[in-house]
Structure formats: C-alpha cells, structure tokens
Amino acid sequence: MKNVYLQLYSLGPCTSQDMVENFKLVSEMGYAGVEFAGSNFGGLSVEDMKAALAKYGLKTRSAHMQYAAVERDLQYMHDIGIEYAIIAMHPIADHAAALEFAKQLNELGDKAAKLGMKVGYHNHTQEFNVSEGETFLKTLLDNTNENVIFELDCGWAAAAAGKENVMHYLTEYAGRFKAIHIKENNKVIGAEPPFNPAMFAARPSAKPAGELTEEDKKRIDEMQKKRLERESWNCPTGQGLLDWNEVKQLCNKTGIDLFVVEREASYNGHSRLYCLAEDVKYLTENVKD
Predict the structure, then answer these.
(1) Given this model, what pLDDT does residue 233 score?
(2) How far apart are CA 88 and CA 192, in angstroms?
(3) At what angle do helices 46-55 and 19-29 cross, to 10 degrees?
(4) How much is the CA Rg of the chain, to the nearest whole Å?
C-alpha cells in the first residue's frame, strides 16, 4: 500500500511546537503526507508551509478542526492545497440535533465550494447512537448535500459495532466517504455517550490560523488525557478487528483514495514514534493497492 498519510494528532507526546520538525519526523517514518489537527498549522505562512512540505516530500489534502474554526481557516487551507476541511467531532444529542447539524454542514459546504473545497465530518463511536430509529451518522449522511463529504474512522466504527459496521457504511454510502482513518482497536465497546457540549464551549479565537489560545491548549491537553484512558484498546496495526486488505479493496471500489493513519495511544510500552513507524511499515508491506 502506497501513499499513506498521518493525522498529526497521532504524534501525541512527540509533537513539536515546530511544525517543520513534525514534518521531518513524519517523513522519516515513511508517510507520504499529513492531515492537520485542531487548526494547528504551526503559525506558518502559506509560502513557508508549502516550502516545508516540499522539503520533506509531503502532501496534504485534509485538516481537522472544530466547527467554529472552519470558515475562519478556509482561505488558508485552500492556499496550501487542502481539499477537505473536516470537523473532527461535534456534540450531537439526538435526531433533532443531528438534523440541525446537517443543515449547518450544508451551509459550510456551500461556502467551501466557492473555493473548490468540501467540508467533511469524521466520526467517533458516539455517532453510532440511535435516535428516531437511525444512527446519528446515518442522519448526517442522508441530510447533507454534495458539498459535504465524510471520513470514516474505521477504528471507531468497528469499536462501536464490529467489523460489519465499517463494511456496511462504506458500501451503503459509496461516494459519500472520500477518506478513511486507519485505526486499530482490539475490542467492540459499543457507542459511547454523546459528546458533552461543554467540551466545545471554548471557541477558537480570531487569531490567524495556527496560533493556539490558552483555551485551545487546555482542550488539547484534555483530549490527550482521554486518549491515555483508551490505551488498552489500541494494538499494532494488523492485530485488531479489521482486515485492512478487505477494507482497502472495498475503498478502491467506492472511490476512496485518501488513507490516513490515526493512533490514539501507544501499545506494549513502546514509544509513539515506534508505533507509528510500525503502522506505516505494516500497511506498506502487507496491504495491496
């Protein structure tokens, strides 16, 4: 398997304040590109960002952020070559809230379309809660337009309802998913309770893209603590719930061509960089294009 990207959130404790140093690490591990996280672009100008990516032979096609930051960062993302502005998570309490959020996604997607981009959404297990007879994710898929795409986090989808859940959504909604997260979990835990809106209370500041406020840093710290709680669910790629060759072949049939490794935690006492290097090595050596 070629052209595997890395979600920069995965660097966890190894994340450098210097974005260029992060690129160096990612390139040395063997990844082909990066997916940005939390509107953190390292404070680099458009020109410096392009130069840094080129220096290490990396591509970028997507970025994760909060809903409130998308419109602010659209122009910058467009200028550095990003196609998909992906909302990483959002509080959805029930069917009505899912419908309202779908409407908001459509509005953002229409704005992104003017720049030739699309807005996206990335799931956790929470989107597989059921209200009015359907999952939150199904409600979002059924009520958004062509300017809204989805990135299936296969690890969380499998953790929510097993391997079949991943295959079902990729098949049933062929064309709506444009990217996947390659994440390895070793057990089914079910859909976790919906996200608490308080998690999203701190809105991004009006500062330029890449400059983190103290509230942003606090939120990131809290997310890292949550990640550590989930460490026991993580395992080496190829040893979890999914057959990645099976997933890859289905993605090929449904038009998905952006494959992003995301790791929540390390395993077996190994360093994060070791785990991430092993992830891309496994995919490169064992998964067919």
Answers:
(1) 82
(2) 16
(3) 30
(4) 18
Mean pLDDT of 192-212: 68
> In terms of Cα–Cα distance, which of 75, 100, 288, 69 is closest to 200?
69
Q: pLDDT digits over 248-266, tens only? A: 999 999 999 999 999 988 9
Dihedral sign, CA of 212, 180, 266, 186?
positive
Confidence (pTM):
0.91
